[in-house]
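Figure-free illustration: sequence to structure, shown twice.
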Amino acid sequence: MGQPVKLSDALVLDARIAGEAQERSIAGQVEFWAKLGQAVEPLISSRQAIELRRKGEIRPLSELLGSVEKTEGRERTKAYLEGRPYPHYRQFPGQPRVYIRTAADGEETVGRFVNRAFVPIEGARESGSHSSPARARTEPGAAAESSSKENARDAEYPIERSA
C-alpha cells in the first residue's frame, strides 16, 4: 500500500518534467529514481557516494532546461560537445544543412548528412574570407553531367558553387 511522502517542490517539478519524457506519472518517476538508487548503491562505496554528492553542483532539471536558450546553456552544451570523442561537427557559416566535420587530427571536411550518414561535398572547402562550400570544377574531357540522383539531391540542398 502506498505511503504519503513529503517531497520538495523542486524534486516534484523535476519528476514531472522527466516523467513526461518517459510517460511516467510523478509518483512513477520518483519510484523509478528510488529503484535506480537502490540498484546503484551497493556498487559504490560510501566514500564514492559522498564524493559524487560533493563533486558536482546539483541543480534542478527545471533550472537547467530553463537555461538552455541562454548564454550559460549554450556554453555548457558547447563544452560538453567539445569533450566528446571525435569527429566533431559544426554548421557551415551561412549554409543550412551543410556542416564541417573536424577529425581528431584537425582535418576538416565539408559535407551534409544524407540518411544519417555524413557525405563529403567533393571539392568543398572553407576558406578564410569566402564562407560557402565550393564544388571542384569538372576537368576538360570529364563527364560534365551529374547523375539524376545527385541532381535531385542538389535541388533539395542547394549550395553555392564556384564558377
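We now fold a second protein in the same way, so the two outputs can be compared directly.
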Amino acid sequence: MPNKSNLRVSNPPPKPLLIWDGDCDFCRLWIERWREMTMDKVDYSTYQKAADRFPEIPTDEFNRSLVLIQPDGAVLFAVEAVYRSLAYRRSREWLAWSYDHLPGFAGISETGYGLIARNRKFASAVTRVLWGKDVRRPTYFWAQRWFLRALGVIYLIAFVSLWVQVDGLVGSNGVSPVSQFLPAVRAQLGPDAYTLLPTLCWFGSSNAFLHFLCGSGVVCCCSFSESLRRFHCLLFSFCTCRSQSQDKSFSIFNGTCFCWRWVFYRSFSRRGGCGQGSCYCGHDHHRQPQPIRFRASVCFCSSFFCSN
C-alpha cells in the first residue's frame, strides 16, 4: 500500500489545487497537458505564487515534488498527487485505483517519479525530442479547416459546372426533362416514389427552380469564405437579439451549409434519368448500388460533424 500523507492545511481551496515548480520546464510542459485533460475541475498554480497561502507545507516539499491540496484540506505529494488530480478525468481514474489496490504499482510509480524528479533537465530534453515544444493533445484544427475548405471548393466546382448545363440536361427542353421524369415515376411507383427518389425537385421542376437549387448550392459552398462567415455571425446575433461567440456561430453556420449543399446536390443526383444517379425507368442496372448510397451517407455525416 502507498504511504499516505497526514498533512492537512487550515484554509483549503474550493477546488483541488495542484502546485508545481514554476522554474521547472518539464513540469510546465506536462502541466499544460494535464490542465487540458482535467479542464476546470482542477486548479493549477506555481509554488512561487501559492506557497504563502499554505504555511503548513514546508518549502522543501514544493521544491522536491508536486503538491495536490484537496478541498477537504488533505495534502498529497509526488506521483500520488499526479494520479489523484488526473482521476478527475474519467478515463484516468484507473491510475488512482491501481495506485491504491494493485500490488507493486505504487512502488514502481514512486521510483519512476523520483528518477524523473532528480533529472528534470534531462527529462525535459527527452520530452522535447519525443513530443516537441507542446505536449498537449493535437486538435487537428488546421487539417480539419483545410479539409472542410477543400470539400467546399469541390462542391462549388460541381455546382457551377452543373449550373451552366442544367437547362440542357434536365430543363424543360433538355435531354432528360425532370418535369417529365418525376410524374412518370409517380405514376409507376405511387406514393413510394417520394421515399425511393427523395429530391427537392418534387416541390418544383421548372427551369427557374432548377437554377434556384444550383444558385443556393453555390451560396452554401461559399461557407469556406471567412468574410461570409463573419457576416453570418453578425446577422445571427442580430436576428436572435443575443450575443453568440464566433466559434459557436461559425460551427452552426458550417453545419447548416454542409447539410443544405448535400441536400441540393443530392436532389440532382437522385433526380434520376438514365446516366445520372438512380433510375426507376425499369432498368435495374441504372440504379445506384446500395454500398455507394451508404458511403455517400457516411461521407455526409462525417463532414457535417467535422464542421461542428
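Summary for the second example: The first strand starts at residue 17 and ends at 20.
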